[in-house]
């Protein structure tokens, strides 16, 4: 019995529209809706032909009334299905339509069969043959039209063919019996074709579903890859690639609409020391928090602001909507104010600032990449002269850019041997004002520009990658001059970040030292806080290499950069040089006084010497002596002098000390320098 029920259930399922496969049901509906109007057209035309055949033979109600009723029913259904081609239906509506068709297929088939059998007795042999032909041809056409709805096709086949065969076999007419058998065999073949076609159709729908699923998965993966390729993984902001893509699009829109467009670049001031001191984990959290704060500011302003992380501690802004200068400066101030708020990270409490450079289209540039370069230079200017503020690229900065480009161009073709000159500024013992050494300062006498300040050509040489070549040339010249000095006079030479952080380190400089004949103990190299923070690991390796051959190391401009005390403690320093900015108002500003006192105390605790720059008055000298400075230099003693004036300066100084006891007041050599 269980087997019988199973087969009965399977047989019953052939006559139902399945509801467990929405994709198959929708595919059936889409294909079926295109063929149903044809099905009803076949019924109407064949019925009218049969009614016309029996018009003089059968009663009017059978030849006119019944065909009219049947044609109306099928015509209404045909019109309904024609309208479905322009209607988007949901899965439930599709299933309902197919089930309605399935339910009415049997009754409509019965009506046409009964009508045909009622007409049959009124006809002559030819008319009766027309009935057999009508039923046979119509059922075959209907089966073809119902190929995509197997259950309805089977129902129609059963309600038409079974009575058809029985009726014509019962007539006793040999020809009609042959037609019935023939129709039965043809119908069986048609049903076989129906099952095969439906199976293949269902398989095709399933494969299409699988293909669509694969395509959807591929598209989803492609979308995710695109998102990841254009998203910064740390901050969830658009990355550099996305920034420049959006900039290109925004620039094209601004050109088309004739509106203003601004590009901004934000650089976090003081991030690298935090990253080096507390580690990359804390640094990443600071970046995430900074990005969140900048995003909130951008979302709160009225303009259309697109924010991206360009890399490291730099962020990019695209400000659309015709922003004014005031709008950009206000945006920069808001961002800076938010960035300056304290960062509480576990036990670490730290602070940041930021500098921002803006450039405005069409005033600053007429191309997207040029606009970005202008914003980058505005940022460079802000970090040099307006740290912690927003700067908009202006005509003055444009003139600076042209000057900078000219300097870079001329540096590439300059003859360093003949065009570079050196001057030397004395470094004095703070207590007895005796000269202990000279700091080397470079000057460039360009044939086209004349005398160029090192503040201009040194950064230019760094930008174009020529600083290391320039350093070697200058070091050779400086050591050649030092070789002519007394053995107790030291020489102090400045190194850039590129000199001490390059992959091959200071090996080229060590080779120059060995070839010069000057004892390394007389050579002191000055490095800046910027150089230390640029790449501390390589800077430390370079410092250790120079110390290993006997050179001294001094940390220049201490107190103005962002190096941490941990760096100072880890480096084998011999001196700290206090920047002149603290000396200028040491007697008027208690803060400067306390800073210098703290720095001299730090040097004493670390057992290293303290050198103070920028001494210009006797009062400053007296204060620095009381504060514990070991060495001093400045215009109060001598301006930087050419190499051929050094020996004369030293000779006069030694004669002065030989002819008198240590003077109560130092002699000011105003005419010794240049």
Write structural notes for this entry:
The structure is a single chain. With 674 residues, the protein is α/β, with parallel strands linked by helices. Helix 3 runs antiparallel to helix 4 and helix 13 (395-413) packs across helix 15 (454-463). The model is unreliable at 4-15 and 667-674 (pLDDT under 50).
Summarize the helices and strands and which ones pair or pack.
Layout: H1 2-13, H2 22-53, H3 60-84, H4 91-119, H5 125-145, H6 150-170, H7 174-229, H8 240-257, E1 261-269, H9 271-278, H10 280-300, E2 304-311, E3 314-320, H11 325-340, E4 343-345, E5 348-350, E6 353-361, H12 368-385, E7 390-392, H13 395-413, H14 416-419, E8 420-429, E9 435-446, E10 450-452, H15 454-463, H16 467-482, E11 490-494, H17 497-501, H18 507-516, E12 523-528, H19 529-534, H20 536-548, E13 552-558, H21 565-570, E14 575-578, H22 590-606, E15 609-612, H23 618-627, E16 631-632, E17 641-642, H24 646-659
Parallel strand pairs: 6-7, 9-11, 11-12, 12-13, 13-14, 14-15, 15-16
Antiparallel strand pairs: 1-3, 1-6, 2-3, 4-5, 8-9, 8-16, 8-17, 9-10
Summarize the structure.
The protein has 674 residues and is of the alpha/beta class. Helices cover 60% and strands 14% of the residues.
